[in-house]
Amino acid sequence: MTCLRLALAALLLHAGVALAQTPEFPRFEGEIDLGAYMLNTRPARGSGQRGTNAFLFGEIGGALHLDPRLSFHATLHIEPLGRAEPQGGTIGLRREGAYLEALNAEFRPVEGLTLVLGKYVVPFGRGHGDFPGVVALFRAHETYLFNEALGVMARATLPLDAEHGEHVITAAAFTRDRSAFSTLLVGNRRRCCSSNYDRYARNTAADGGPGNTGRLDNYALALDGERIALLPGFTYHAALLSRGQGQDGTARE
C-alpha cells in the first residue's frame, strides 16, 4: 500500500523526443524517453521515510546506420540505484545512476532477417514498455524486464501475405553481462553486496541469480504479431524464457 500511495502522489514530467534524418546513409537516429518524478511520502509511518524524493527514470537511445544492412545501437538507462529516505525533508537525484542497457550491432543479410550481437534486453514480455501509469512502469521494470543480457539474437519476419499481418519470431542465447559494458557510468561505485543498493559498480559472479552462469546457456523464444486485417488494432506477444543455474546455486528457471 505504501508503494501505491507513493506512486499516486507522484508529479510526472515526461519528455519524448525522436530525431530522424533522411533515408541516406550513413545516418544517426536518436530517442529520449526520460521522466522526472517527485514522490511525496508525507503520510509514511516511519519518520525517516517522510518527505519528498525527486529522481529521473528513463532511457536515452541512439542508432548509427552505416547502410541498409548494418547498424549499431546503444541505450543508456537512468534510474535510482537504491533506496533513499528523505528524513522529513526533500532530496533530489539521491543515488541516481546510469548504465548501458543495450550496446549491439545489427546485421540484415536478407530481407526479413536480422542478426544481433552484443548486449540487449531479452525478448520476453512487453509490459515494461506498454503498461500505463506510474506504479506499473516501476514495477514492470523491477520484475518484468530481463536486461543485462550479453549474447546473440535473431529476428525473422514470417513470409505471409499482408492481410495475414506481420508476425516476427525472435530467438536469443545469452548470459548475464559481466563485461566492462556492465560498469556503471554514473552512480554507486561499491562492489556487491552492500545494503540499500540494487546495483553495484559492475556485475560479477558474486551477484548470483539465475542466468549468471558465464555461458550462453540462457535462452528466449518469442513470437509477436500485429497489423492483422481481420483484427484491427490487435497485437500479441508470446514468449518462453529459460535461465541457467547461477553460480550461487540458484536453480534454472
UniProtKB/TrEMBL annotation:
Name listed for the protein in its UniProt record: Porin
Key words of the record: Signal
Organism: Plastoroseomonas arctica
Signal peptide residue numbers: 1-20
